[in-house]
Specification:
Structural class of chain B: alpha/beta
CATH topology of the largest domain in chain A: MetI-like fold
Strand content of chain A: 5-15%
Oligomer: heterodimer
Strand order of the largest sheet of chain A: 3-10-4
Number of strands of chain B: 10
Strand order of the largest sheet of chain B: 6-7-8-3-9-10
Helix content of chain B: 25-40%
Radius of gyration of chain B: 17 Å
Largest sheet of chain B: 6 strands, mixed
Largest sheet of chain A: 3 strands, antiparallel
Number of helices of chain B: 8
CATH class of the largest domain in chain A: Mainly Alpha
Number of domains of chain A: 3
Bound molecules: adenosine-5'-triphosphate, magnesium ion
Number of strands of chain A: 10
């Protein structure tokens, strides 16, 4: 699993990973800086005013025990998704080690030393800066070390709320089922944490050996390095349009398509937030707030889930109303539709289809009692799930089985089941010898993929209308399935797959 | 007026216990007062009231006619040298920066401080190479000399010394006593010097006080110390 393959991924994809490493350092060091100042301040404060020691330490302790997921869930509605929330979370967790160690370091100094410094006429401030803090330095540095390592690792989850950094790689790897990408991301995070730890251990040694000059020089070098990374990141932060995507290979591919298409056809700089946490609702929220400008969405999802409307079987009608509501209420426009429908379709093995001559779903009705139906548990529970479908097509199966969603294709191949509803854009289907049956009674709700964009950004950059318009009806179900297949099964990088497709469609130039 | 330190009916309690009992005392400028007395009699407590580390419960202490309880204490302390037994040197500062601690607090120029430290090193017969070392690399006698150098660095007019030579072997102690006498005469300082050792008190003191259960009495005034 590990080894050469992983190394190859790292080398081939360095253009993807290097900016992530930089961004990871950037986010972590902002969090480290803020929490150092805050933690030091609080630690000094409670060492001076012992009165506040108990409440402050108890509170930081309590916060420290809140599970990260809960913290994210709690904060995102207030501070939104993105780097800021990530940094807030990191700072909150980093406080405890800083506050506690500062407090302990300062209060552990012997009274004789404090008295001597006082007797010689140190002001309170001089006492703090010339005696207390330097003497507490080893203890503070130990806390700092813990805090830095923790922050770097914890920053790995920052991408779950739409922040950047190496977590993006892990997140992407997980949702496209790509172990190598997950591995490289994790290894890089671990490496960053390890290197920082080693540097700080070295610093701690210097402090203990009282080699302060040495320490000063080395920390200056590191400061310069971090400033360099800041400049690098800030330079990369200048963008004209921000694109978001939900989780999953399909969304990743579409958002990469949008990014490449815009960048190659205009002078606009794009910032891509891939796999934003809280997914649909979070991104919609971000669009309304102006945090994101453009993202791929599905008509059905917007209608049923975001607008909470009753399903409208006439899709043209649904689409017209959807566009109207988006326009009037949110200032968002549905600017183009790819043409594919991310929905369900009944599917059987080709052999079964041949045997019974099945083309459309309604062909199944007559022979349903010879077939075993399989779906995940959830499908039997939903209002628009199994029962509704069985009614619509008048299906009475020999047997129904509920199963783990990940096992459904294996079950079909091994003939444990004969028929199942598949996602129409799944890449996995291409590996199977199956027949997808037409939904001739239009039972399955339609989820047509399109792009939604804020009207404001469209006004600012009117050229986007033409550019994005080029995507209209360019991709059918089979085509998106193929792209998904490339990413999910072949483990290829979504950006490469997106670029290839754009070239094939003549939407961008082939530079190679 | 030549008065330097004055206690006016000073009383100090620790809990129920009266540590310093209605002490009145006047020390003139240029005196080297040695204070004797059994352990726990309140000597250190007296000394710490002079630079305001300990506050009296009753009465007042004046330094140069300034009430210690009311004056700018930080400034006053910078003009008072302070040496205690087993001198606490700052472990994170090398010897140079230990000695120059007060000049640095005050913000005296670097070159002036450097000259001052060099003079003190000569005066106390210290080894120059010592300046770069840290206090855990020094002997007890060396530490004590550095403690004195540090107390002298900002040219204080008053020195408070609490058994400064208590932990030293007799030989080193004798040498440092002589040096102290020399410095005292040279710099015309007022010194408040606590000791357990009667002969030390007699050798150094231009005036000897005895503390007993918080009560202070003059012992002898040596005829002449010249
Ligand atoms: N901070 C304090 N809190 C309570 N009691 C104290 C405190 N400092 C000193 N004492 C008590 O006050 C008394 C006098 O202490 P002080 O240090 O003045 O004695 P001393 O004469 O200097 O003794 P020694 O010769 O042993 O140094 C002692 O009984 C001591 O226990
Ligand atoms: Mg004492």
């Amino acid at each position: 699993m590990l080894g050469k393959k992983t190394l190859n991924v790292l080398i081939d994809e360095r253009d993807f990973f290097i900016p992530l490493v930089m961004e990871h350092i950037y986010i972590s060091s902002i969090a480290v800086m803020i929490s150092t100042m805050l933690g030091l301040g609080l630690g000094v404060f409670i060492s001076q005013y012992k009165y506040f020691k108990f409440p402050v330490l108890s509170l930081t302790n309590l916060i420290y025990t809140i599970p990260t997921i809960a913290m994210l869930g709690f904060l995102t509605p207030m501070t939104g998704v993105g780097n800021i929330t990530a940094i807030i979370v990191l700072v909150i967790y980093a406080l405890l080690p800083m506050v506690r160690n500062t407090y302990i370091g300062i209060t552990d100094i012997s009274n004789d030393i404090i008295e001597a410094a006082n007797a010689m006429g140190s002001t309170k401030f001089q006492l703090l800066t010339r005696i207390k803090l330097p003497l507490a330095l080893p203890v503070i540095l130990t806390g700092f070390r813990n805090m830095v390592v923790m922050t770097i690792s914890l920053a790995g989850i920052a991408s779950f709320i739409g922040a950047g950094g190496l977590g993006t790689a892990i997140y992407r790897g997980i949702s496209t089922n790509n172990v190598q990408v997950v591995l490289v991301g994790s290894i890089l995070i671990a490496l960053l944490a390890f290197i920082s730890d080693q540097i700080l251990i070295h610093f701690l040694k210097l402090v203990k050996l009282k080699k302060y000059l040495n320490l000063k020089i080395k920390s200056s070098i590191i400061t310069v390095f971090i400033i360099f990374i800041f400049i690098f990141n800030l330079a990369g932060k200048q963008y004209d349009i921000s694109i978001a995507s939900k989780l999953g290979s399909e969304q990743f591919i579409l958002s990469e398509i949008l990014t490449i298409l815009i960048e190659e056809n205009s002078d606009l700089k794009v910032k891509l937030y891939k796999g934003v946490g809280g997914s649909t609702a979070g991104i919609h929220e971000g669009m309304i707030k102006g945090q994101f400008d453009l993202y791929p969405e599905y008509t059905g999802t917007a209608w049923l889930y975001l607008l909470q409307k009753e399903y409208e079987p006439d899709h043209d009608k649904l689409q017209a109303q959807l566009e109207k509501i988006y326009n009037e209420e949110y200032g968002i426009e549905w600017i183009s539709y790819y043409g594919f429908n991310n929905s369900y379709a009944l599917t059987v093995r080709t052999e079964t289809a041949d045997k019974y001559n099945l083309q459309k779903s309604s062909d199944v009705t007559a022979i349903a009692d010879e077939l075993v139906f399989g779906a995940n548990y959830d499908y039997y529970e939903r209002d628009d799930g199994f029962n509704a479908m069985a009614d619509a097509y008048n299906l009475k199966f020999k047997k129904t089985i509920d199963m783990e969603i990940g096992l459904r294709y294996i079950a079909l191949e091994s003939k444990e089941i004969d028929i199942l509803p598949i996602f129409t854009t799944d890449g996995e289907v291409l590996d199977l010898d199956v027949k997808i049956l037409e939904d001739d009674k239009h039972f399955f709700k339609k989820y047509m993929a399109g792009n939604v964009i804020r009207k404001e950004i469209l006004m600012k950059h009117p050229e986007l209308r033409d550019i994005l318009g080029k995507l209209n009806n360019t991709m059918d179900n089979e085509e998106i399935s193929k792209l998904n297949y490339e990413v999910n099964i072949k483990k290829r990088i979504d950006r490469d797959v997106a670029r290839e497709w754009l070239i094939k469609k003549g939407l961008i130039e082939d530079k190679k | 007026m030549n008065q330097c330190i004055r206690f006016e009916e000073v009383t100090k309690y620790y809990g129920e216990k009266k540590i310093v009992d209605n002490v009145s005392l006047s020390i003139d400028k240029g005196e080297l007062v040695t204070v004797l007395g059994p352990s726990g009699s309140g000597k250190t407590t007296m000394l710490k009231m002079i630079n305001g580390i300990v506050q009296p419960d009753n009465g007042s202490i004046y330094v140069y006619d300034q009430d210690v309880a009311k004056c700018d204490i930080v400034n006053l302390r910078r003009r008072i040298g302070y040496v205690v037994q087993e001198t606490v040197l700052f472990p994170h500062l090398d010897i140079y920066h230990n000695i120059s601690y007060v000049p640095n607090l005050i913000g005296i120029s670097k070159s002036k401080t450097k000259r001052r430290v060099r003079d003190l090193v000569d005066m106390l017969q210290l080894d120059k190479s010592m300046l770069k070392r840290y206090c855990d690399e020094l002997s007890g006698g060396e530490k004590q000399r550095i403690g004195i150098a540090r107390a002298l660095a900002a040219s204080p007019e008053i020195m408070l010394m609490d058994e400064p030579f208590g932990a030293l072997d007799p030989e080193t102690r004798a040498i440092l006593q002589d040096e102290l006498l020399r410095i005292w005469k040279e710099l015309h300082m007022t010194i408040f010097f606590i000791t357990h050792d009667v002969s030390e008190a007699e050798k150094l003191g231009s005036r000897i006080l005895v503390m007993n259960e918080g009560v202070l009495e003059d012992k002898v005034t040596p005829v002449c110390v010249d």
